[in-house]
C-alpha cells in the first residue's frame, strides 16, 4: 500500500493529555482509501472513511471526516484540510444562524412551520420556497415585532417581506422576547466554542450531502446500464420522480448518455406528438417547459379524464427535451 498523504491531528483532553491520530490517503492497485488511525493502535484497527476507485467520492469522504473530527476538537498539524475558508470569517450572518438554531423558541417555531405549511399548500409551492427552517429558527429566536426588525433576519428579503411580512408579524407580535434589535449583540454573547462546533457541523453536513450525491450517481449509472425503467429507478433509488429526472438531466449535462432510457420511456409516444414538441422547443426555446406545454397540449383541464396528468406531460416534455438538446449538440459539433 502506497501512502500519498499523511497528516497528524491532536486534541487536548479534559485531563490535560493530548490525544492524537493520523489521517492518511492510500492507494493499492488503483483502489483508494482514507484511513483514520488513533495513536498507539495497530494498522488493522484503522477507521476506513472511504474505499473505492472514485477520486471525487474520496475527496468528499475525506472532507466530511475532517469536518467531523475538527468539530470534536481535533486540530490538524498541517492546516488547510478543507476546501474553503472557515465559514463566517468577517460576517455576523453565520453567528445569527447559529444562535437561531441554538436558541429557537420551539413553540413559536411550530406555529411558524404550520403557517408555512398552510401557505405552501395555498400557493402550491414547496415549503422551503416560502421560508427555510433556518429562517424560521432565527425568527423564533429573535422574535421581530415590527417590519423593520423582520428585515434584519438574514435570508428574509424584500420579496418575502412584501408577500408574507404581515402574516408572520401577526404570529410573532404576541410572543414575548428577552433580546433586542439590532442584533449586533449576538457576536458578543454567542459562545465561541459552540459557534466553532456549529461551523464544523455545517461543513460536515455539506460534505455528507456530497457523499450521498456521488453514491446516488454511481447507483443511477449502474441502473441505467442494466436497462432499468423510470419506475424501477424510482423504486431502487427511493427518489421522487421529479428529482430522479433532475439527476438524469445532470448526468446528460456532464456528458453521460441516457438515450437508451429515454428511448424506452418514449416508445409509446407517437412520432407526430414528439415532432410537435420538438417544433415547440425550437420556437419558444428549451429553457422553460410551461410555454411548450401550452403550445403543444393547450390549457384544457385534464383531471378526471383519461388524458395524462400535467405532471406526466411535463415528464414527457423533459425526456423529449433531452433528445432535442443532444441532437442540437451533435449537429453543432
Looking at the overall shape, the CATH architecture of the largest domain is Orthogonal Bundle
How are the strands of the biggest sheet laid out side by side? 4-3-2-1-5
The rough form would be described as flat
* Main β sheet profile: 5 strands, antiparallel
String of helices and strands:
EEEEHEHHHHHHHHHHHHHH
CATH first level of the largest domain? Mainly Alpha
**Helix count, DSSP H or I runs of 4 or more residues:** 15
Radius of gyration: 26 Å
Give the CA-CA distance, first to last residue.
44 Å
Class by alpha and beta content: alpha+beta
Spans of at least 5 consecutive residues with low confidence: 84-89, 300-305
CATH homologous superfamily of the largest domain - what is it? HRDC domain
Classify the helix fraction into a percent range: 55-70%
Number of E-type strands: 5
Report the oligomer.
single chain
Number of domains: 3
Quick structural summary:
The chain has 333 residues and is of the alpha+beta class.
Describe the structure.
- The protein is α+β, with helices and mostly antiparallel strands and 333 residues long.
- Helices cover 57% and strands 11% of the residues.
- A 5-stranded antiparallel beta sheet has the order 4-3-2-1-5, covered by helices on one side.
- A hairpin with a 5-residue loop joins strand 1 and strand 2.
- The chain is flat, with a radius of gyration of 26 Å.
- The model is unreliable at 84-89 and 300-305 (pLDDT under 50).
Amino acid at each position: 500500500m502506497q501512502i500519498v498523504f499523511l497528516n497528524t491531528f491532536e486534541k487536548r483532553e479534559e485531563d490535560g493529555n493530548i490525544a492524537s491520530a493520523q489521517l492518511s490517503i492510500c492507494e493499492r492497485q488503483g483502489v483508494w482509501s482514507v484511513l483514520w488511525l488513533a495513536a498507539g493502535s495497530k494498522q488493522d484497527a484503522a477507521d476506513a472513511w472511504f474505499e473505492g476507485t472514485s477520486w471525487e467520492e474520496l475527496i468528499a469522504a475525506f472532507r466530511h471526516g475532517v469536518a467531523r473530527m475538527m468539530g470534536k476538537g481535533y486540530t490538524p498539524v498541517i492546516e488547510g484540510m478543507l476546501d474553503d475558508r472557515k465559514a463566517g470569517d468577517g460576517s455576523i450572518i453565520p453567528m445569527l444562524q447559529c444562535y437561531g438554531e441554538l436558541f429557537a423558541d420551539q413553540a413559536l417555531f411550530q406555529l411558524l412551520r404550520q403557517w408555512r405549511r398552510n401557505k405552501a399548500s395555498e400557493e402550491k409551492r414547496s415549503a422551503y420556497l416560502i421560508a427555510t427552517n433556518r429562517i424560521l429558527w432565527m425568527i423564533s429566536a429573535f422574535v421581530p415585532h415590527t417590519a423593520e426588525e423582520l428585515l434584519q433576519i438574514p435570508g428574509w428579503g424584500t420579496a418575502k417581506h412584501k408577500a408574507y411580512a404581515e402574516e408572520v408579524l401577526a404570529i410573532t407580535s404576541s410572543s414575548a422576547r428577552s433580546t433586542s434589535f439590532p442584533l449586533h449583540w449576538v457576536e458578543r454573547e454567542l459562545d465561541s466554542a459552540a459557534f466553532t462546533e456549529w461551523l464544523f457541523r455545517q461543513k460536515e453536513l455539506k460534505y455528507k450531502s456530497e457523499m450521498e450525491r456521488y453514491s446516488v450517481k454511481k447507483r443511477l449509472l449502474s441502473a441505467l446500464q442494466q436497462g432499468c425503467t423510470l419506475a424501477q429507478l424510482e423504486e431502487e433509488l427511493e427518489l421522487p420522480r421529479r428529482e430522479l429526472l433532475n439527476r438524469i438531466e445532470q448526468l446528460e449535462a456532464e456528458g453521460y448518455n441516457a438515450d437508451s432510457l429515454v428511448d424506452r420511456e418514449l416508445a409509446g409516444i407517437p412520432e407526430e406528438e414528439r415532432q410537435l414538441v420538438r417544433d415547440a422547443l425550437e420556437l419558444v426555446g428549451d429553457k422553460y417547459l410551461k410555454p411548450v406545454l401550452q403550445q403543444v397540449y393547450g390549457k384544457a383541464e385534464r383531471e378526471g379524464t383519461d388524458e395524462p396528468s400535467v405532471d406526466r406531460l411535463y415528464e414527457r416534455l423533459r425526456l423529449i427535451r433531452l433528445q432535442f438538446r443532444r441532437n442540437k449538440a451533435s449537429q453543432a459539433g
